[in-house]
Structures are given as C-alpha cells and as structure tokens.
C-alpha cells in the first residue's frame, strides 16, 4: 500500500461558527469567529476525561506563548461522559488543569458535529480570513502547528490581513484552600497521611485526623526540580506507594510518587522530605523502547503506582499509553508489565490485554488460593471498568469484574455483569476482602464483593472521589472537587443497591455500509518535512474491532495508511479501534542528521452499520481530507 503524501483539497472551506451553552475564561462574553478576523484561531476539541487531551493542553502552552500576538486558542469542550456535561464540573476542570484560553461549553456536541470531528482530541486551524487550513487528531502535533502558524503569519502579514494584539482571555483567581484538586492519598506509619495536592503541584502530609497539615513537600510551582521540600517541584503528582523497609534502606527513599505531567517517578525520603527523580526522562514516551535503565527510559503520564511483591517491584498505571509498567527500584530498571498500547477492554494474557487509561491500583494480599487473594486490582477510567491481574502458571492474566467497553457507563448495582460505573479513578481493598471503587463521575463509592460477584453502593454525593485508603478500618477518600479528605462511609453502614440506568456517549456513531469499507488515514507531513523512509516504511496502521468478530478481514497490522475492511453479517453496532503512526523528517537533503518526529493517534470509532452508510471512512491524523 502506498505511503505517499496525500494531496489536500484545494477548495477553501469556511469555518463554521462555534456554538454551545456558555463560554469560560471570557468574562461571560460570547466569542464569534467573525469577531476574530485577522487572528489565527486554533480550535482544540477536548474532553477533560481524556488523557490525550490533557497532553495536548501542555503541548499547546509553548505555542500559545510564542504566538501570543497572532494566535487565539479556543477549547471546544465536547463531553464523552454524562458528568462532563455538567457546567460546574467543566469549570472545575478548567481550573484544575490551568486552562487559561477561552473554552466553549458544548454539551450537545453541536460544534463537534459542525466540524465533523471523530476523535478526542482534534485540532483545527482557521486562518485570519476565517477558512479551515489544517486539521489534526491526537497529540504530538505541536511542531507541525508551529510551522503552519509561522507560514500563516508570514503570508497574512504580507497581505495585510493579520491583526496582532492580545487575545480575549479573562481568567478567574483560584480560592485559597489547603488542598486544590487532590488526587491520591497514602497511609504512612504512625497513622499520618500523605496527599498528592495535584493542582498545587506538591505533597501534603496530614495528621491522622486528615485535616491538620503537618508539612508540604514541594514548592507549589510546576517543575521537576529535585532537592529538599522547599525547593523540589512536581507537575500534577498522582499516586504514591510505600516501599518495603528492606528495599527503602537500599535505595535511600521510602515513597515512590507518580509525577504524572512530568512523565516521571519521584522518590521521597520521609525522614527529611528530600525528593529525587528515580525513573523517566521527562519526555513523553513516543513508541520508543519501553524497557531499560529507569532514568533513560521514557514514561507517559504515570497515574498511579503500587508495590506488588509478586511482580517484583512497583507496578505503574501508565495512563498515557494504556499499559502497565514495572519499576525495579533496586536494579534501577523499567519494563513493560502489561498491555499493547491499544485502548480497549480485552482480557487474557497480560501482554496481550487491552487497557484504557488505567488510573487506580490496589494490591490484595492473602494466599493465592483464597478468593481475591494475591491480586492487583485496577480501574480503567475510559472503559469504566474494575479489573484484576493475577499470577498464573505461565505468567499473569487480566480479568474484568465490571465494565463493558469504551462507550458504556452509568450507575447501576447488582450482579457484576450488569453493574455500571462511570470513569472510576481510584480503588482500595477493604479489610473484609471486598473492593471499594472511587466511582468518580458518579460521585459515589461503590463496593465489589468477589465472593458474590455483586456490586453495591456505599456512599453518594462525594465530589469526584479519586483515591482511597483504609485507616483503622475506616475508609478515607480523596474528594477531589471538594479539595479535602472525607470519611463518607460511617462504620457499620451496609452497602445499598442503587437502581441506575445505562448511559452511552452522546458522540454520534459513524454510519458505514455493510460489506466492504475503505479505511483511509490522512496524513500530510508538516511544512518542510517529508515521510522518513530511510529505514523502510514510514507509516504503520493497526486495526481491530469490538466485538472481535465484527471484522471478517482487515484487522491486524500493516504499513499502509489505507485498508480494505470487510464487515461480518449480523452486526449493527460496534467500535473500530484504529492506531496509526507516521515518521517524518526535515526535508533537508544536505543535512546528515535531520530533525525527525513520530506522529501517532489511536481512534475508538463507534460505528453503526446501515444500508445507506458510507463505503469510505476517512480519519485525519494531520492535514485535510482530499475527498
């Protein structure tokens, strides 16, 4: 299959006016593209549940600073989960992730439909005259955007159609609270608790009451500096785990911290609060080697960590690429523990399983033969799933207790096969062997009983619970949106059943016809670059489906960016999982080592098979669809 560059369409397409419920970061003013003529406008279609969207927010910050006079970024929030459609929840997310550009609240996905968007995140560039000039799905497009914006600035400056000046941004001040959007909690010896204060980029140790702060580790500013508590810095730290005493004595630190946005693991010595970097390079993993020396192997958004003796180290919930990693602090090594990087829900052998933004880990001890014993419990946020990993004779396997797929969620109790969660971020094993789930987007604490295989509800009206521990037999929960620790389950309370309802993403399904469908991934290398074919094919495409039998042919991996898919009979709905990547390098024939980069995107495309459906499915990774 040819990997030559696609030819973009020549017709100039006027950008539709964004429409939605309300605007944030504009002082209440409604923005219109017509009022932004003369500016380059970048529309960022995002959802605050989506790890790739959060990556893009950080990728865009340098671009926004560089072109502060010429570029206006508008975030178009297009929710996947029901909770994300809540106006207050969106406002909280805008503050939590320090989004300081205008954001359009589009709960009905009206603007998403107008721009024919098919993936979170998607970026659309509009030129100073109001025409769409570029589209890109996924992350890793910052350099391509910088080149295109540079060209647009030069072109429209020469034509007199560029108007410089500050953009329409009005950012509200944050309230002064001890914690701000905390994410995880760790119990320490003596009964104190260490809390990851995510939006304040630090750790706070509390007394046993969970209310009295004892010390803060980290200076509160975004950064990756090592050192004492006053000079060290983090970027949105997440999960933490204690090392066994004999391991801590050898390595010189007691706690491993998932420093999420820095793509690092940090070590904290509790005696004096000293912080050191113990794994990661500070760069986000981009399909390179995932096994090697800890400080020279890239990580991607480590969200939680847990010491698991059976695995021989610290298991890492690598939310950024839907895998589990393993960190050996004594050997100073990182390796891939499970997953393939494909986002989805597939059980079986750990190295072949699909995960979906794993966000919480908890280890259950006990004898291997006991029900629930010697397991690693985890929650996959994007499939709203509770799962476990357990050792088997030839390695490890993963099984799902609760969860149906990428686009099925809700709040329903009962048998595990029928129960529903909504974007859970935390999990804890209770003293009786049952499992507490921080059902984040339902604002609830749920309970799964492995013996009865049933789900019930322990508490509701908890503001975005994201982590939990047990302290003296009582459940202590991080209520992230309430900026505090809570004890929402009084001792002796029996879990109750909640009759909930199934929910599905509001995102419209793509209608395709039965039989044969041509899948085309559109990719144009950035200006000044060409596809890198020095060492073989420069592109790769991997396709699978849920249900697995939906594709008669066309699944699997190949090097071309288009694929003939053949659908099986009897399937009306499903999800196509598409992972595409392309390598490109600077088009400088005289340069021995040109600058190169890898663009990668994965789509989970909900499809509906209809007689009048399309026989062509275009997905734009970068550029414009030529047809």
Automatic annotation (TrEMBL):
Thioredoxin domain segment(s): 11-154
Gene3D superfamilies: Glutaredoxin (3.40.30.10), TolB, C-terminal domain (2.120.10.30)
Protein's name in the database: Thiol-disulfide isomerase/thioredoxin
Species of the source: Actinopolyspora biskrensis
Flavoprotein among keywords: no
Region (Disordered): 1-20, 214-233
Keyword Acetylation: no
NHL repeat placement: 421-451
Keywords assigned: Isomerase, Repeat
Source superkingdom: Bacteria
A molecular function (GO) term: isomerase activity
InterPro entries: 6-blade_b-propeller_TolB-like, NHL2_NHL_rpt_dom, NHL_repeat, Thioredoxin-like_fold, Thioredoxin-like_sf, Thioredoxin_domain
């Amino acid at each position: 299959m040819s990997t030559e560059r696609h030819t973009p369409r020549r017709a100039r397409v006027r950008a539709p006016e964004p429409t939605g419920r309300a605007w944030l970061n504009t002082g209440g003013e409604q923005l219109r593209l017509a009022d932004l003529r003369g500016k380059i406008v970048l529309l960022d279609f995002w959802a605050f549940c989506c790890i790739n969207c959060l990556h893009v927010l950080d990728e865009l910050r340098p671009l926004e600073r560089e072109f502060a006079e010429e570029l206006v970024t508008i975030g178009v929030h297009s929710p996947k989960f029901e909770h994300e459609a809540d106006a207050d929840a969106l406002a909280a997310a805008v503050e939590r992730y320090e989004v300081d550009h205008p954001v359009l609240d589009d709960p009905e996905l009206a603007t998403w439909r107008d721009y024919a968007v098919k993936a979170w995140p998607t970026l659309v560039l509009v030129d100073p005259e109001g025409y769409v000039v570029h589209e890109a799905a996924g992350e890793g497009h910052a350099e391509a955007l910088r080149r295109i914006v540079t060209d647009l600035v030069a072109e429209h400056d020469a034509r007199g159609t560029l108007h410089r000046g500050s953009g329409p941004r009005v950012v509200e001040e944050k309230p002064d609270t001890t914690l701000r959007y905390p994410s995880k909690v760790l119990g320490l010896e003596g009964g104190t608790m260490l809390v990851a204060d995510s939006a304040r980029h630090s750790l706070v140790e509390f007394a046993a009451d969970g209310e009295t702060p004892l010390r803060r580790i980290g200076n509160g500013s975004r950064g990756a500096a090592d050192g004492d508590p006053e000079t060290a810095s983090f970027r949105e730290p997440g999960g933490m785990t204690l090392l066994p005493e004999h391991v801590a004595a050898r390595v010189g630190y007691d706690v491993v911290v998932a420093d999420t946005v820095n793509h690092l693991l940090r070590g904290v010595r509790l005696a004096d609060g000293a912080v050191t970097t113990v794994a990661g390079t500070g760069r986000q993993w981009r399909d390179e080697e995932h096994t090697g020396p800890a400080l020279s192997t890239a990580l991607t958004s480590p969200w939680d960590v847990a010491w698991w003796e059976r695995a021989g180290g610290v298991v890492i919930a690598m939310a950024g690429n839907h895998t589990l990693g393993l960190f050996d602090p004594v050997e100073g090594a990182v390796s891939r523990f499970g997953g393939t990087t494909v986002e989805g829900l597939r059980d079986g052998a750990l190295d072949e399983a699909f995960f979906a933004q794993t966000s919480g880990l908890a280890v259950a001890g006990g004898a291997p033969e006991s029900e629930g014993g010697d397991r690693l419990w985890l929650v996959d946020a994007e499939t709203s799933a509770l799962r476990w990993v357990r050792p088997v004779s030839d390695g490890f396997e993963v099984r799902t207790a609760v969860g149906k797929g990428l686009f099925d969620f809700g709040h329903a109790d009962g048998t595990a096969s029928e129960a529903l969660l909504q974007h859970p971020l935390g999990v804890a094993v209770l003293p009786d062997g049952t499992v507490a789930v921080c059902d984040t987007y339902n604002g609830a604490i749920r309970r799964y009983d492995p013996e009865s295989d049933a789900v019930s509800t322990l508490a509701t009206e908890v503001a975005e619970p994201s982590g939990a521990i047990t302290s003296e037999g009582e459940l202590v929960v991080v209520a992230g949106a309430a900026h505090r620790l809570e004890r929402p389950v009084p001792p002796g309370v029996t879990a109750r059943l909640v009759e909930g309802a199934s929910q599905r993403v509001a995102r419209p399904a793509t209608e395709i016809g039965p039989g044969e469908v041509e899948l085309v991934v559109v990719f144009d290398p950035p200006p000044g670059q060409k596809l890198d074919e020095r060492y073989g094919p420069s592109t790769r495409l991997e396709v699978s489906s849920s249900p697995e039998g939906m594709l008669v042919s066309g699944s699997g991996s190949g090097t071309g960016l288009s694929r003939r898919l053949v659908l099986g009979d009897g399937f009306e709905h499903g999800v196509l999982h598409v992972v595409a990547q392309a390598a490109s390098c600077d088009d400088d024939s005289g340069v021995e080592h040109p600058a190169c980069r890898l663009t990668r995107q994965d789509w989970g495309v909900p499809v509906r098979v209809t007689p009048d459906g399309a026989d062509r499915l275009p997905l734009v990774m970068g550029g414009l669809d030529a047809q």
